[in-house]
Specification:
The protein is an all-alpha fold. Helices cover about 55% and strands about 0% of the residues.
Length: about 100
C-alpha cells in the first residue's frame, strides 16, 4: 500500500517548491486545467489522483514512482536491483544438494 493522499499532496508541493516548478505547469503536463494540481494540494479536490497522473507527475518531478504512490518505472526497478546486488551486507548462502 502506498502513501496516503495527504502525504502525496505534501510531497508534490515540496518537490515543486524545491525545483522551482509551478503547480500550473504540472497540471498542464498532466493534461488538466491550470488550477487542477493547486486545488488538489490546497483543497483536496479531487481527494486522490489517478495512478496515471501520479506516474506522470513522478516522471516530471524526477522522483521515483512509489514516492508518489505510482507503480515503479522499469528504470526504478533496475536501479533497485543494482543497489541490492552491490550492497556490502548482501550475502549469498550456498547449500549442498542432499
Amino acid at each position: 500500500m502506498g502513501p496516503s493522499p495527504d502525504v502525496i499532496r505534501q510531497r508534490i508541493a515540496a518537490a515543486c517548491t524545491e525545483q522551482g516548478k509551478s503547480l500550473a505547469t504540472l497540471s498542464r503536463v498532466l493534461g488538466h486545467q491550470e488550477g487542477y494540481i493547486a486545488r488538489f494540494v490546497r483543497s483536496a479536490v479531487p481527494y486522490e489522483l489517478s495512478a496515471a497522473d501520479r506516474a506522470k507527475a513522478a516522471e516530471y518531478l524526477g522522483v521515483p514512482g512509489p514516492h508518489l504512490g505510482a507503480p515503479a518505472r522499469p528504470d526504478d526497478l533496475r536501479a533497485y536491483a543494482e543497489r541490492k546486488r552491490y550492497r556490502p551486507e548482501y550475502r549469498t548462502v550456498l547449500r549442498r544438494a542432499t
